[in-house]
Design goal:
2 copies of one chain form a homodimer. By secondary structure, chain A is mainly β. The longest helix of chain A is centred in the middle third of the chain and has 9 residues. The first copy, chain A, has 6 helices and 22 strands. Chain A folds into 2 domains: 267 residues, Sulfite Oxidase, Chain A, domain 2; 116 residues, Immunoglobulin-like. Chain A is globular, with a radius of gyration of 21 Å. In chain A, the strands form 6 sheets. A 5-stranded mixed sheet of chain A has the order 4-3-13-7-8. A 5-stranded mixed sheet of chain A has the order 15-22-21-17-18, with no helix packed on it. In chain A, strands 5-6-10-11 form a 4-stranded antiparallel sheet. At the A-B interface, helix 4 of A face helix 5 of B.
């Protein structure tokens, strides 16, 4: 199998600054969205944690992040190629996928750049879409397991491979920064019992809508959203990870010594090769009620209601504990869960916390998962502003 | 395959309080050790980070934790059974293991209870051996890969299995709390390219010594030491995790609602079934110079030398960054590494940090790995005091 190398088109451009900078508008594509609760004018974070919202609905609530326009695909003629190091190459259509055993998993999906705004605000400027705390959703996903598809094709050991990966590509739509969107995860993860990697045909019991990847996307619970290729049309078993820009250059936690965009572009981006591609999500929590700069009126006991969501780290879910502090970490109260968190789902939590009246007050949240991962007060700054998982916070509150 | 259930002998006794409470002393066993830098009279933590100590040596430097006495095994007659859901049961001897391709991996091995003393001191009393910060070592391990052994036997899907595990047992020595010591990891982990699970015949280029598991032990980089069965004599492919006490009852991060030993023993220990067995290690760092209650003399610039080690979380290594604070987290300096950290190794680090003169001063360390995991200031308290990975700290310093 020939692995596509990062070519001249694959320079990392400044396309992450704005959610609306797409120049590609071709027949058959609708305009891309790349939006969510973090965008001005988009629905607020608190819709994500509203009553009955354990599964994130449609419409403007769920975040959307693409690196291409949204293709309109004919499900009757759509083909998913299975190739690379396999005994038998396959051309599957949607009916073939439906004929396999269907597997359902509730999983949170989070953009690696969720909470970038917090990193930028509390630490230092970063390069990327200014996501607030809402670039996450929690859905029920349903479709065949990737390993059942690979079993049809028969996996062989790639020649000269260092580590076997399974690539997930959408070749039918050109991207901002590469000829197509591609991602990969390890073969281990794809074949795993516990990791439940699927080709999702449904979200929350309904056929996927175009913005969520119709007719089929990959879903890898515990792994960042950027690997969950939408409009999937190729699965490739290969001896190294995807060479796509979004695997090899974007979505990496660069060292703090990389301070400017020039630094990471220096020497044709040599720094990227020294840093692994992000895969597993990090333990995280955010506060939705109240949010930044709000006025909070205390109840007669001097308490405020606080509510948010929490996401476990990688395969270490479920979230088992969320604590909330109204006094800068001197004391913490344990939140209660609204509903039940599962291994890959988020937890929606609420608590009552004591606050002092005045200006510039703040509240922190801190989650722990079953694997013992606990949020740090602040995570390491990186130029791309990815992987922020410091304490959830609501800042600059006016408390009456 | 018949999975042994937790039987009447398998009650969790109070055997973790003392490192020297063993009643079993039978012919053929030497006295067990269960000791390390955390014990009174044992060598100090700083031997672990001494010059040239990137690989932890023999003698009293390396920690030792067994749940049985140390058996003296004849390597010429020792047999490792491979059974369970396999096409062909095997009886392998050490020469058979030596005849397989040998794989070498440098990996830190850490007791789940490392730093228990810190949890007990900073948070609340816990039940378990009073490990300080030295229940960890970093060694080069060499032996055949577990997956190569399993390939000889041929893995089959266990009947009625929920998740396939590979059990690693030592049946030749009775344990404190069960009839034998057993552990398991997922088949996924055992078969993984990247996880490098081996049957170690050598440590640091030499035949294992009895206290490290002679003639063969399992080593699973990224996973807590309790799964790394010493004196291995059985490998079992099974449809659920090991039913051994040390998998099913010990080494779990219980919820904070479990406040006393009675709580976790209530209803015949029903709480244990609701909590997953610990597997992956958590990002961690400790300070070896200075340590608790020491007197530190500042240099003319008002700076102190600080040195320690850091261990990455699970498969998310290497450690990429260690920061040190002498002012309670208001400012952090970046440590430099002594030598090079690899994916599963620890990092030995040092830094110079500004300190104020006076009593009761303290220093913090905080590590981040390539997966973006950062230590929390404090991790969640749990009755067994396992998985502590709050900031490394040197407390109660007198600074001159």
């Amino acid at each position: 199998m020939k692995v596509q190398k990062v070519g001249p088109r694959a320079k990392l451009r400044s396309s992450h600054h704005s959610p609306h900078n797409h120049q590609i508008l071709e027949k058959g594509y609708s305009e891309t969205v790349n939006s969510g609760p973090g965008d001005p004018g988009r629905p607020s974070l608190r819709e994500l944690v509203a009553e009955g919202s354990f599964l994130t609905g449609d419409g403007l609530v769920a975040y959307d992040r693409n690196h291409s326009l949204t293709p309109r695909i004919n499900r009757d003629t759509h083909i998913i190629k299975v190739n690379g190091s396999v005994k038998k190459e396959l051309n599957l259509n949607i009916k073939d996928l439906e004929a396999l055993p269907q597997h359902e998993v509730v999983a949170a999906l989070q953009c690696a750049g969720n909470r970038r705004h917090t990193m930028r605000t509390l630490q230092k400027e970063v390069v990327g879409i200014n996501w607030l705390d809402g670039a996450a959703m929690n859905c029920s996903w349903r479709g065949p397991r990737v390993r059942d598809v690979l079993a049809l094709a028969g996996v062989e050991s790639p020649k000269g491979g260092k580590q076997t990966h399974v690539g997930f590509n959408c070749r039918s739509v050109p991207c901002e920064d590469d000829e197509y969107f591609g991602s990969s995860i390890t073969l281990d993860a794809a074949m795993s019992d516990e990791k439940e990697v699927i080709l999702a045909l449904q979200r929350n019991g309904k056929t996927l809508s175009p913005r969520f990847g119709f007719p089929v996307r990959m879903i890898a619970p515990g792994i960042i959203g950027a690997r969950a290729t939408k409009w999937l049309d190729e699965i490739t078993v290969q001896g190294e990870e995807s060479q796509n820009v979004y695997q090899r250059r974007d979505y990496k936690i660069l060292p703090e010594t990389v301070q400017t965009k020039d630094d990471f572009l220096a020497n044709d981006g040599a720094i990227w090769d020294t840093v692994p591609a992000m895969q597993e999500t990090l333990i995280n929590s955010v506060i939705a009620y109240p949010t930044q700069e709000e006025t909070v009126t205390l109840d007669p006991d001097g308490m405020a209601e606080v509510k948010g969501y929490a996401i476990p780290g990688g395969y270490d879910g479920p979230v088992v504990n969320v604590q909330v502090s109204g006094d800068g970490g001197k004391s913490w109260v344990t939140a209660e869960f609204v509903g039940t968190a599962t291994k890959f789902s988020w937890a929606i939590w609420k608590a009552r916390v004591k606050l002092e009246r005045g200006e510039k007050r703040f509240i922190w949240s801190r989650a722990t998962d079953a694997g013992g991962n606990t949020q740090p007060e602040m995570s390491a700054w990186n130029i791309r502003g990815v992987g922020y998982n410091g304490y959830g916070d609501a800042r600059d509150l006016t408390v009456l």
